[in-house]
Design brief:
Layout (H helix, E strand, L loop, with lengths): L9 H8 L3 H8 L7 H14 L5 H8 L4 E7 L4 H16 L3 E7 L4 H13 L5 E4 L3 H8 L7 E4 L11 E4 L1 H14 L6 E4 L5 H16 L8 E2 L4 H12 L6 E4 L2 H13 L9 E6 L12 E4 L2 H18 L6 E4 L2 E3 L11
Parallel strand pairs: 1-2, 1-3, 3-4, 4-5, 5-11, 6-7, 6-8, 8-9, 9-10
Antiparallel strand pairs: 10-12
Helix pairs in contact: 1-2, 1-3, 5-12, 6-7, 8-9, 10-11
Length: about 350
């Protein structure tokens, strides 16, 4: 029969470090009035004993949980799932824990319920992945005493809520201009869902670049971010010999387009050039390697945390907005059209 060992307590750390219980408490709570050598000795004792501070007790003592909340939703999409990792990493670097509340659907009741669950955990601030308009409404309805940052909100959609997002329109225009500069007469577009701000902004950037070049804008094909939707759009485009260039609103749909064009005997990039958006890790290894618009998810995570921590520190919520600049990664899926 095995005896369960009692977890180390604060008094055990104090005994090993040769200090008082109060000194250990000050180190745990990051109190400034502790000499550096004493702090180092206490931290070494904590590591030696594998001592885990009581978070609930520390919250009561300091009125701070050192925990931030993250509202997300059930998705397998690369962008949102990668943002979760980026925010967790940025929070860890800033000395915070992260508690995640997932909404089954990004609608008003579920987003507000997720925020409520996080507030019950005494989180100091909340980052909300807000991919659709309903999530903006939920953020606007939250009390002003809750530090909140919206990630992926369109400018002006959630007035008064700090926002961090990629410049989707600039990235889409960049991709479209690249194809036009190669000599393509126009660029077809496989769009994301209309209720997603990112999809609308990417479609607007694509359209603006065509208008700027005085080129016709073909009717966009509606997609849902999935490779299957891209595949269906690709089959429709493959039957049209005038199609020589396609910009997809994300890389997953671009992957579906590549497969459909291959099955239809349309060679990429010899017959049709294809550009995606996101720069998923698999993009350089596709056949051909995919030209795409890269988002700096780490930068978005850092700025989300910076805006949130600024609210926590100052106690005020200002509607600041940060737009991250995308970059075009040119690979082998784009080329001068064959006719040229």
């Amino acid at each position: 029969m095995h005896t369960v060992r009692r977890p180390p307590a604060m008094r055990d750390v104090a005994h090993l470090a040769g200090v008082s219980h109060q000194t250990v408490s000050r180190v745990v709570n990051d109190h400034p009035n502790v000499r550096s050598e004493t702090r180092a000795r206490v931290l070494a004792a904590m590591r030696a004993l594998d001592y885990q501070p009581n978070v609930a007790a520390r919250t009561l003592a300091t009125n701070r949980s050192q925990t931030l909340g993250l509202v997300t939703f059930d998705t397998t999409l690369f962008g949102p799932s990668f943002m979760v990792h980026a925010i967790e990493r940025a929070a860890r670097e800033a000395g915070y824990f992260v508690s995640i509340a997932s909404a089954r659907e990004p609608d008003v009741p579920q987003v507000r319920e997720a925020i409520r669950r996080l507030r019950e955990q005494a989180v100091e601030g909340i980052v909300t992945l807000a991919p659709v308009a309903a999530a903006w409404t939920a953020l606007r309805q939250e009390p002003l005493d809750v530090p909140i940052v919206g990630l992926g909100i369109s400018s002006g959609e959630a007035e008064g809520v700090p926002m961090v997002a990629i410049d989707n329109a600039a990235g889409a225009a960049m991709a479209t201009r690249h194809l036009l500069e190669l000599g393509h007469a126009t660029v077809h577009h496989v769009a994301g869902p209309a209720n997603w701000p990112e999809a609308r902004e990417r479609q607007a950037g694509w359209r603006a670049a065509l208008e700027e070049a005085a080129r016709p804008a073909p009717p966009p094909l509606a997609g849902d971010w999935s490779a299957a939707a891209g595949y269906d759009a690709g089959l429709a485009l493959a039957d049209r010999p005038e199609v020589t260039a396609v910009f997809c609103a994300n890389d997953q749909m671009a992957i579906g387009v590549l497969r459909a064009l291959h099955e239809a005997g349309r060679r990429v990039p010899r017959d049709v050039s294809v550009v995606g958006f996101d720069d998923v890790p698999e993009a350089p290894y596709l056949l051909p390697p995919l030209t795409t618009v890269r988002q700096d998810f780490a930068e978005l995570g850092r700025h989300s945390l910076a805006l949130l921590v600024a609210q926590i520190s100052t106690g005020s919520r200002r509607g600041e907005q940060f737009r991250s600049a995308p970059s075009l990664i040119v690979r082998s899926s784009t080329a001068t059209p064959l006719a040229n």
